[in-house]
Amino acid sequence: MAMRIAIVCAFFSVLLTPAFGVHAGSAGQKAAPKTYHVVIKGFKFEPEKLGVEVGDTVTWTNEDIVPHIVTAEKFKSKRMDQGESWSFKAKQKGDFPYICGFHPTMKAELVVY
Ligand SMILES: [Cu+2]
């Protein structure tokens, strides 16, 4: 009898696992914000175009020996010397083109979905 119950339980857990898995997966994406990294190197932002979701965080890190600064219409970083980072949490959807305020030819874009 105990054996039969165990088999029935195993059967249901196999049946239910995919359903719960899919559910937890789609809910999990909203619940778990991600952190993305942009490296500033050789007077370039890498990646040059980054897409994130609302609630995600973007961290820029300057690897150049000269200071850089992220300047967008809606946000602005601190001055980042070599090895320094600055983080920004995306709170609003939209396209946010940005430049380095010290070197305006350095252009990149953050897209928040
Ligand atoms: Cu710069």
List the keywords:
1 helix, globular, 36% strand, 8 strands, 113 residues, binds copper (II) ion
Tell me what the structure shows:
The chain is an alpha/beta fold and 113 residues long. The protein has a domain at 35-112: Cupredoxins -  blue copper proteins (Immunoglobulin-like, Sandwich), CATH 2.60.40.420. 27% of the residues lie in helices and 36% in strands. It is built from one helix and eight strands; from the N terminus they run H-E-E-E-E-E-E-E-E. The protein has one helix at residues 2-31; strands at 35-41, 44-46, 49-52, 57-62, 70-72, 85-89, 94-100, 107-112. The chain has a four-stranded mixed sheet, with no helix packed on it. It has a four-stranded mixed sheet with strand order 3-8-7-5, with no helix packed on it. A hairpin with a 6-residue loop joins strand 7 and strand 8 (107-112). The chain is globular. The termini are far apart. The relative contact order is 0.18. Residues 5-28 have low confidence and may be disordered. The site of copper (II) ion has 5 residues, from loops.
Would you summarize the structure shown here?
The protein is of the alpha/beta class.
